[in-house]
Amino acid sequence: MDFTSRLFCINNEFTGALISGTDVVWLTFPRYDSPSVFGYLLDERAGSLSISGEVVEQEYLVPNVLRTVMKDGSEITDLLLRGEHSFVRKVIAKTPLKVKVNCLRLRESEGQGLQTGKLGLQDG
After folding, report:
1. Nearest 5°: CA angle at 51, between 46 and 55?
2. pLDDT at 37 exceeding the cut of 80
3. Do the Cβ atoms of 36 and 45 come closer than 8 Å?
4. Looking at residue 115, what is its pLDDT?
5. Contact between 84 and 70 (Cβ < 8 Å)
6. Residues 91, 96, 98, CA angle at the centre, nearest 5°?
7. Any idea what the Cα angle at residue 17 is, between residues 82 and 7, rounded to 5°?
8. Burial 24-60 (b: 16+ CB within 10 A, else e)
9. CA dihedral angle for residue 4, residue 42, residue 10, residue 89, rounded to 10 degrees
10. Contact indicator for 78, 66 with CB cutoff of 8 Å
11. Residue 56 exposure: Cα atoms within 13 Å on the Cβ side
12. Cis before 63 (ω within 30)
């Protein structure tokens, strides 16, 4: 099955994300009415969060918790915490993986043009 042609949705009461394969292709943050952080779904230049690997299985563990298994046995778990402004992506890598972050956010209200986003990565 080609998982890049399917969109999975996770959400909480504040915002939602769309995930295609290992790519987060849509995320508005911290609320639904905020500008998109990742907007690849509408424009390839609008940002995404990607992890290398071939997807062999993708399923909801419970509502709003998506588990992705890759050919090498690596796993990604995506969720938006209920009651919090937090997007969590947990990666258990069996082999080295490449992570690509393209994040541009338009700050219309402040008139400052495009601003790059910050990403916190934690090992362990």
Report:
1. 115
2. yes
3. no
4. 41
5. no
6. 75
7. 130
8. bbbbbbeeeeeebbbbbbeeeebbbbbbebebeebee
9. 70
10. yes
11. 7
12. no
Burial group, residue 1, by CB count within 10 angstroms (0-12, 13-18, 19+) = exposed
Which are the contacts of 45, defined by CB distance < 8 A and separation ≥ 6? 104
pLDDT digits (tens, 9 = 90+) for 38-64: 999 998 888 899 999 999 999 999 989
d(CA 40, CA 42): 5
Tokens 């390839």 correspond to what residue?
44
Q: 61: burial class by Cβ within 10 Å (0-12, 13-18, 19+)?
A: exposed
Residue whose C-alpha is closest to residue 48's, from 7, 13, 93, 83: 7
Write out the two tokens for 90.
Answer: 């947990």
Q: What is the pTM of this model?
A: 0.81
Q: How far apart are CA 69 and CA 56, in angstroms?
A: 6
Dihedral sign of CA atoms 119, 30, 85, 41 in order = negative
Q: How many CB atoms lie within 10 A of CB 18?
A: 17
